[in-house]
Specification:
221 residues, Beta-Lactamase, alpha+beta, 6-stranded antiparallel sheet
């Protein structure tokens, strides 16, 4: 009787040991999963860095050459004076640690005699251009006269670049959710502005925005 009782007790302890082992395994697996989740942003950032294309590479040159070609084609078809891509980016931080939201011209095509604007569209603080951001949120290629905008930094910026009429269309990320920049078409003299066909604009600008967005998403930036 005593021996049988001892065997039963021993089996109970064995079951407890087995259960404890499974609990430990579960804790290890759980810790591994939590650690992976915590490190996931870092891993994604590392993979993104590894995918960065060198500016001298054939792919980089090919992607951005095609973007400039699209801008020139669009400008010519619409009789516009300037076609520009503005892209949002970070640029330092404020004293409270929040990131500075800026935008710069990354691609531009101008007609003969029209000055380029890349040098004056570099590192501009987005917080100074709320009217422009509100315009982008409409997500339409409508034509607007610069004179129709209320007095603001955006209007003064357009006037300083001799823009009489313009159209803007947001460029979104690969998911089509976040705005990563915009396509800006400008007319700087009334002779060309008088040639604007709004029906044509409503079709061509969204079409080219998709083409350009597709090129930028190939990893050439």
């Amino acid at each position: 009787m005593t021996t049988e009782t001892i065997e039963i007790v021993d089996n109970s302890f064995n079951n407890i040991d087995i259960l404890g082992s499974w609990v430990e395994v579960g804790m290890v697996i759980g810790a591994t999963i939590v650690g992976f989740i915590i490190l996931l942003p870092t891993v994604r950032h590392f993979l993104k860095l590894n995918k960065t294309i060198h500016p001298c590479s054939t792919k980089f040159r090919g992607v951005h050459s095609r973007v400039h070609e699209f801008l020139t084609e669009l400008r010519v078809k619409l009789h516009a004076d300037r076609a520009v891509i503005l892209q949002f980016h970070n640029g330092g931080s404020f004293l409270d640690g929040s990131s500075m939201k800026k935008f710069s011209s990354t691609h531009e095509s101008c007609s003969v005699g029209v000055s380029g604007t890349a040098s004056v569209r570099a590192g501009l603080l987005a917080s100074n251009y709320i009217d422009m951001l509100e315009h982008l949120s409409l997500n339409t290629p409508d034509i607007h006269a610069t004179s129709s905008i209320s007095d603001c930094q955006f209007r003064r910026h357009l006037e300083s670049n001799h823009t009489l009429v313009y159209s803007m269309m947001p460029i979104k990320d690969v998911r089509g959710v976040s705005v990563m920049g915009c396509l800006l078409i400008e007319w700087c003299n009334w002779d060309r502005a008088d040639l604007i066909d709004e029906d044509k604009v409503s079709v061509i600008i969204p079409e080219y925005t998709r083409h350009i967005s597709g090129q930028l998403h190939t990893g050439g930036t």
